Amino acid sequence: MKALSLYQDRGTVVHRVDSRSKLLYILSAILIPAVLPGFMPGLAMLALSILILATGKVFGKVLPLVGFSLLILASIVLIQGLFYSGNKQLLFSLWRFGFYREGLLFSGGICLRVMNILCAVSILVLTTRPSDLIESLVRLGLSPHLGYVLSSVLQIIPQMTATMETITDAQRSRGMETEGTLLVRMKAFLPLIGPVVMNSLVSTRERSLALEVRAFSARSKKTFLNPPQGGTANTVIPLVLLLAMAAAIVWRVMQ
Amino acid sequence: MKNSMWNLKLSTSALVLIPAAVGINYIGKLFAGLLKLPLWLDSIGTVLSAMLAGPVVGAICGAINNIIYGLTMDPISFIYALTSIGIGLAVGVLAQKGRVNSIGGAVVVGLVAAVVSTLISTPINIGFWGGQTGNVWGDLVYAGMVAHHFPVWIASLTDEFIVDVPDKIATVIVAYGIYKGLPQKLTILFRHDSVTEQL
């Protein structure tokens, strides 16, 4: 079945690292630049993330994700550059507007932080199969029931999108207007979403019966389909990341 | 109390409601985009599930919604899971107390949801984006207020609030309209006050 996911199957070294290491990497990519002062730690971390993404052959897929946030980042640079409350030193002027050094530095910091988090999360999202991620979360102690809920969402959304297209076509063929003034478009919202929602809620009843019949809420211990991923890399990487985070915090406290 | 709305033990029907609700959130956002409405309408499912099954399921829906968004579209939305959890809790409590019983009640609950959402989102917006929300109208107000030397937190609070109020009120009204139309054999599955009859 088609499932909602950004996963890219490229079979590189990065893909074989288990998701626990990648989750720890996200944590360190956020924590280390936040703990250490200046722009350098953030830039170094960003360079490392880009290197990993390139090794995983998924760098091209990061750009649409970054594009999602680019507009708001651009507006932050604009607004903070012009109006940041600490603005003192005029850097350059465009037409009638003056851009200030403090505001641009402040917004630069925000951009760097956002890019850092985006790239680190992308490593996880683009190179890990969602079902593998959920399985390793369950191994780490997430309730198997919630694990089911998470993987169920990934399958239900494409289903509902398909229903949505059917309903839109059906309502249009009955002459419902979906374009025009704001009032017309607002009126169209409920007849469009209503049937999709009713459909999905009615099917929850059947789904819960089907699950119960298969002993979904049985209390016995659940087993896993796949054996846990082993290997030296999957013990060394978490260890190195934990040490790096500890070192950053210790260094900061000593300062 | 066995049938309290804070019961953390989730029934199978409540668990199955969660994926459907997250799907509804997603569809709401898609339809709002399709019809070019100036609102997000991306929490209808969270609100609906909170009305049906109470604050705990509402909060879990909110959290899972943002986790899935983060995994499949925009990694930044992980952090806003806190806002979604708050909306689910607030609407769930009010609905279980019977406040969502008319359009007027829905408007009041929408307003409360907007206040909760603003209070949780603003610190995140300030910490993460320097105070902006990414919505054109809200950010214009923000720029104007910062230019007139208002403190950042007031500008950011206003920015978020004026975007959230119409959005959350519309969301709760839509969810209420759907809730009213649901057959009783469905709503009864998720209720907490149901009493088992003994023969």
Notable traits:
heterodimer; A: 255 residues; mainly alpha; 2 domains; 9 helices; 2 strands; B: 199 residues; Arp2/3 complex 21 kDa subunit ARPC3; 8 helices
Protein described:
The complex is a heterodimer of chains A (about 260) and B (about 200). Chain A is mainly α and about 260 residues long. Chain A has two domains: about 15-135 and about 230-255, no CATH class; about 145-215, no CATH class. Chain A has nine helices and two strands. Chain A has helices spanning about 15, 20-35, 40-55, 60-85, 100-125, 130-140, 145-175, 180-215, 235-255; strands spanning about 90-95, 95-100. In chain A, strand 1 and strand 2 form a beta hairpin. In chain A, helix 7 (about 145-175) crosses helix 8. The longest helix of chain A has about 30 residues, at about 180-215. Chain A starts with 12 loop residues before the first helix and ends with a helix. By secondary structure, chain B is an all-alpha fold. Chain B has a single domain (about 10-190), classed as Arp2/3 complex 21 kDa subunit ARPC3 (Orthogonal Bundle), CATH 1.10.1760.20. Helices cover about 70% and strands about 0% of the residues of chain B. Chain B has helices spanning about 10-35, 45-55, 55-70, 80-95, 105-130, 135-145, 150-180, 185. In chain B, helix 3 (about 55-70) runs antiparallel to helix 4 (about 80-95). The interface between A and B is large, with 68 and 59 residues.
Please render the helix and strand layout as text.
The complex is a heterodimer of chains A (255) and B (199).
Chain A: H1 13-16, H2 19-35, H3 40-55, H4 59-83, E1 90-94, E2 97-100, H5 101-127, H6 130-139, H7 144-173, H8 182-213, H9 233-254
Antiparallel strand pairs in A: 1-2
Chain B: H1 12-34, H2 44-53, H3 55-72, H4 81-96, H5 103-129, H6 136-147, H7 152-181, H8 184-187
